[in-house]
Amino acid sequence: MLGFVKFANKAYPNAAASVEAAIGEVRKLKTGLPRNIQELTCRLPPDWRSCLDGLADQHLQMRQGRREPYIYAARDDIDRTSPPWLMYRTRYELRARTILCRLRSAGLTGALTWNGQAGDSALAARALAELKIPTLFAELSPFKGRFFLDHLGVNAASSLQHTDPHQLPAYEDEDLLFDNLRRSYLGRHSSVGKVSASANLPNSFVFAALQVPTDTQTLLHGEAIQSQTEFLALLADIALRLPHNIQLAVKPHPQSPYKPSHLHNAIGKNIFIASDVETRTLLERCEALITVNSTVGVDAFLFDKPVFAVGNAPWIKRPLALPVRTAGDIVELIAAPPAFDKALRKQFLAHWYHAFTWSADDEPRKVRAFIEQKLETSRQHRASSA
Asked: What CA–CA distance (Å, rounded) separates 110 from 378?
């Protein structure tokens, strides 16, 4: 029996429907607080403590990150004796007991969950691993209408993270796929509201793409950057070091529209705020892209732009994008940008597309074969790590 455990049934019903059509009967397990004494008293292994502490830390950070100016407390500064932290910690422990108890009696031979890195989905992932149930992790992909699926996790926790771009199989449609993706700009439009004319853009600029402050991409995979506040500080250092003829253009994520006054105060008065400029226009005209680990970095591949990323993600590899850490390193690279391998970028995108994603419009038999292959990989991984 395949189970949906914290799968995004409501948020992405077409993803769930395509799996159900392919697999047939699936069981949808609900998580939440205990409903009976058995669930309430379910014992958790001792090594769950650090996981639950970390989730309470993360929850507190994300709540803080929703309030402008979107400032996190550093992880080391979180007060684990405060009433809010204790409340979140208690809540996660009760929910962990619930999901572990329910999974023990569910009789699942495999499971699908969404993301698996934050909140209840992280508890589900931990419980599924504890019970050695083959598990697949789903997430949105950067390709329009397609969902990502992997046996290890998503983003930097996925098996795609360990892929060597030089060791990829060849795909016959690499060039065609790349051209189609560029034509549709991956099918995504990131501006909100009225999009301004691009005539106001600086003649020469570096594009900095901000992310959602509460994004687990930054919290968990930002490397030295653990918040957008820290990224803004890095951009401020970069802005001071840039040659006078190159300006910094900053675009907030549409779901976290920083006020221009905050960005000017945090980064510098001379930056160009590109809130109302379409991302495609920025990518077409910029000299380079700077990001933590936003998938806008992948979009920049389509326009042959240098990409400098301070975080971690499967596509942040030297033949494709440059991992960087300091403002000095970034400014030096902007002054003399290295060449990137367009052919490897094409091949990597084709591998990501074909080997890790599916569409709700795919034929059920194709989706079934895709899921069964992924589940078998998960079984083998569980067996080898036992």
From this structure: 9
Radius of gyration over alpha carbons of the chain, in Å? 22
Cα 223 to Cα 219: distance, rounded to the nearest angstrom: 9
Tokens at 10, concatenated: 């409501």
Sheet hosting strand 110-114, strand order edge to edge: 26-29, 2-5, 110-114, 135-140, 146-150, 357-359
> Residue 100: how many CB atoms within 10 A of its CB?
22
Return the half-sphere exposure (C-beta side, CA atoms, 13 A cut-off) of residue 145. 9
Q: What is the pLDDT of residues 67-77, one digit of tens each?
A: 655 555 556 67
Burial of 183 (0-12, 13-18, 19+ CB in 10 A): exposed
Give phi and psi for 250, each to the nearest 5. -115, 130
Q: Which amino acid is at 265?
A: N
Question: Within a 10 A sphere around the Cβ of 58, how many other Cβ atoms?
Answer: 22
| 226: amino acid identity, one letter | Q
Q: Which residue has the tokens 């957008």?
A: 228
% of the chain beyond a pLDDT of 90: 74
Q: State the pLDDT confidence band at 188, using cuts at 50, 70 and 90.
A: low
Residue 280: Cβ-neighbour burial (10 angstroms; 0-12, 13-18, 19+) = buried
Q: How many residues does the chain have?
A: 386
Residue extents of the structural domains in the chain = 2-164+357-384, 171-348
Q: What is the largest CA-CA distance in the chain?
A: 68
* Residues 116, 160 contacting (CB under 8 angstroms): no
Contact 308, 128 (CB under 8 A): no
Nearest CA-CA partner of 134 in 375, 386, 384: 375
- Supply the DSSP symbol for 157: G
DSSP E strands in the chain: the ranges are 2-5, 26-29, 110-114, 135-140, 146-150, 205-209, 247-251, 272-273, 289-291, 307-309, 322-323, 357-359
2-5 and 26-29: which strand pairing? parallel
This prediction has a pTM of 0.91
Q: Which CATH number fits domain 171-348: 3.40.50.970, 3.30.70.1150, 3.40.50.2000, 3.20.20.120?
A: 3.40.50.2000
| CA distances (Å), origin 262, targets 192, 258, 269 | 19, 7, 10
